[in-house]
Amino acid sequence: MALGDQFALFVSSVVDYAIFMLDPAGNVVTWNEGAQRIKGYKADEIIGRHFSLFYPVEDARNRKPDWELEVARREGHYAEEGWRIRKDGTRFWASVVITAVRDETGRLRAFGKVTRDLTERRKQDARRHAEREAEAQRLRDHAASMAELERAKTEFLNLASHELRGPLTVIRGYNSMLEDGSIPPDQVPAVARLLEAKLAQMDLLIEQMLETARLEHNRLELSREKFDLRWAVQEQLDIFRPLSQGHHFVIKGAHEPLLVEGDRTRIATIVANLMDNALKYSPGGGEVCITTGRLGGDVFVGVRDEGIGIAPEHKPILFTRFGRLPTEENVSIAGTGLGLFLCKEIAVRHGGNITVKSSLGAGSEFTLTLPSAR
Ligand code: ADP
Description:
Layout: H1 3-13, E1 17-22, H2 33-39, H3 43-46, H4 57-61, H5 64-75, E2 77-85, E3 91-102, E4 108-117, H6 119-179, H7 188-216, E5 225-228, H8 229-240, E6 247-252, E7 259-262, H9 264-280, E8 286-295, E9 298-304, H10 339-349, E10 353-358, E11 364-371
Parallel strand pairs: 6-8
Antiparallel strand pairs: 1-4, 2-3, 3-4, 5-7, 8-9, 9-11, 10-11
Helix pairs in contact: 6-7, 8-9, 9-10
């Protein structure tokens, strides 16, 4: 077999590439195995027909096929990647090279066309691109959340140091008065109680920070003991009473034991928070009424004040983390917005809840309910 025939045989049996010739007008004159496989036409169906058949209608209408031949004629070849149409009408992504074939006198005899189906590769590229994009997005999200964490941490540290400095200043002031003897001896016990209350406020704050961190790391473990809620309330009352400025406490205590089973220290902290808030958010003084009692299968502690109250639209913020209400009063009243968030979390973990009744300017009542122990 002559080399030329061998070569023709080789071309006709290549399956991965459509290799065929067009006459100078663009009609198909040869067809190979690969062309049949990729485009779906058999040789006798396509030979003699114009190659614009392989293009999307829009391209054919815009005479893109003719333009490509024109480029190949002028420059020797034309190459591109683009959509082409199979016999069954489906699209495929093709890599196309059109080469002008000239005889020794330079006369254009034909065009050789090699087409490869890159649909799969394009899909893979798209998949890889999407994966890379998703990975990049994950990294961007991670960086953003780290930045947010960093920002929250800084803000929190600023807030915490500011909050601790308040009671520290008071304690330092009284201490220097104790040192230079400017507090009369009969008032020392009262000052000691006030100092104790300020220290309790600082304890509360530090405890809030630690508890928030524990919650965040899922490391908040509750202890379980049975105790009478009334005594836990009484203890907190003794601590917070000296902080009252123009407040008077009214106690409506239950006359029977209110046994609960749970983390005594943490439940006491909830009561401390509610009392601390009742005092803080009634800067004009007034009554602070503490009620303990039983309601169905639950026991409860209610802390009612006659303070600034809470607008209905602000209620959803109350129990959220760092949820300080955007009120004018809060500019001058110290707080982190962590107290109620933690109180609620801990109450719920005991199977209880904290609810609030309040109206703006008319005071608030927060109620902690817990399941009664058997
Ligand atoms: P904070 O450290 O700011 O006191 P809390 O979580 O204890 O944080 O309370 C959240 C917000 O709810 C407070 O900033 C305050 O605006 C509001 N709030 C809490 N208790 C009372 C109350 N008894 N009366 C009015 N507003 C209150």
